[in-house]
Amino acid sequence: MRSLDNPLILREIIMDHYQNPRNHGIKDDDSYLKTNMNSETCIDNIDVEAKFDGDKIEDVRFDGEACAISTASTSIMTELVKGKSVEEARKIMENYHNMIYEKPYDEDILEEAIAFKNTHKQANRIKCATIGWNALDTLINEHEKEEKEGK
Ligand code: ZN
Questions:
Q1: DSSP E strands: which ranges in 29-123?
Q2: What is the pLDDT of residues 58-109, one digit of tens each?
Q3: Would you put residue 63 in left (φ > 0), alpha (ψ -120 to 50) or beta?
Q4: For residues 9 and 3, is the Cβ–Cβ distance under 8 A?
Q5: Is the overall model pTM greater than 0.85, yes or no?
Q6: CA 68 to ligand 1 centroid distance, Å
Q7: Residues 134, 85: Cα–Cα separation, whole Å
Q8: I need a surface site. Which of 9, 47, 53, 96 has the fewest CB within 10 A?
Q9: How close is the Cα of 65 to the center of ligand 1, in Å?
Q10: How many angstroms separate the alpha carbon of residue 71 from the centre of ligand 1?
C-alpha cells in the first residue's frame, strides 16, 4: 500500500494546512484581483485574491471564515498554482475537479491536493473542498477578460 492511500496520512495533510494555512491573509493592494465565495451549507465565507503578471500567477492569497476542509483545500491550491502559468493552473484545476467527481486524474500533478481524493464519499463536503478552487477559476477568468479589454 502506498502512503498516499493511507487515510491517516491524507488526514494529516489536511490538518497541517488547516492549522498552518499557507498564503493566508489578504493584502490591501490594488494590483490584486479579489473575489468572495460563500457557502449556504457551511460556515465558509472566504476572500481569495491573485496577482497576475501576464499569463503568470505571481501570488495567490486567501482569508476569511472557513472550516477545516475549505481552509486546507484552499491553502493547498495556493501552493500548487503560485508561480505557475494560467495554462498550468487550469490543468491542475481540471485534474482536481476530475478527482473530486471521480473521473480519471493525474495524481502527480495534484501533489498534496490528493488529500481530498475521498471527498466524493461525503457529498456535503464537495462544496468545501472546491470553494477556493472555484474562486481561483473566477479570478483567472476575470484576469483574462481584463487582458482582452486591454486594461
Ligand atoms: Zn466548509
A1: 33-38, 45-53, 56-65
A2: 999 999 999 999 999 999 999 999 999 999 999 999 999 999 999 999 999 9
A3: beta
A4: yes
A5: yes
A6: 7
A7: 17
A8: 53
A9: 9
A10: 8
